[in-house]
């Protein structure tokens, strides 16, 4: 697939992981002894930035990297503040969901354009 | 796959519901005299937290910890009332010692957390539906 589609796919994966981690944190908000989980997207974000700067880059690089490396490493926080903040987690979840929906909308539009090109008429 | 997304939320819903039930049970029995032979018992919810997302043992339905409601021995509150049929030979009636403030705050806490879990479920469901809808607008 082309670069844009791959970048969108990667971005949707990131948004999904963010939402999953937020929902796991929400589920455990009252469990004694639970340490909040955070996602680290450093590698994937670097790839996406690279893709934005070099549009001639092949989409396969995103695909391969996304497959081989851990696309997101979820870590438990070592910081002093290990408590789960319910409001923050809900906000994080909603933000991830909004990101995801906007990316599905863009991807949908791209597919519609491809279909239009195939059919040759609207 | 879809089941895994919702596993954490379902666990959260079950845990919070049990906490609600335990707190309301404790409040309900606060003024019920104990059986003289039996020690006072109050409900608690016991669980371990979920494995973290992304670990190898994560979120397989059969490995999920399940919260359970257990009854724990509680302190007693003695009231002098010889006319009560539940009184012992000294005329003392024993009630379970319920910390109403703690029970009420855990009731509210659990109810808020339950709402947050419902919201998380709805949001994740919306995301899944949007993904299913990909390309459908053509």
Strand content of chain A: 5-15%
Main β sheet profile of chain A = 2 strands, antiparallel
Using only C-alpha atoms, the radius of gyration of chain B works out to 22 Å
**How would a textbook summarize the main sheet of chain B?**
2 strands, antiparallel
Oligomeric organization of the protein chains: heterodimer
Along the chain, the helix and strand elements of chain B come as HEEEEH
Helix amount of chain A, in percent?
A: 55-70%
Q: Can you count the helices of chain B?
A: 2
Biggest interface reads: A-B, 40 and 37 residues
Instruction: Quote the distance from N terminus to C terminus of chain B.
Output: 26 Å
Which residues of chain A sit in consecutive blocks of at least 5 with pLDDT less than 50? none
Envelope shape of chain A: elongated
Distance between the termini of chain A: 24 Å
Q: Please state how the strands of the largest beta sheet of chain A are arranged side by side.
A: 1-2
Q: Residue share in helices of chain B?
A: 40-55%
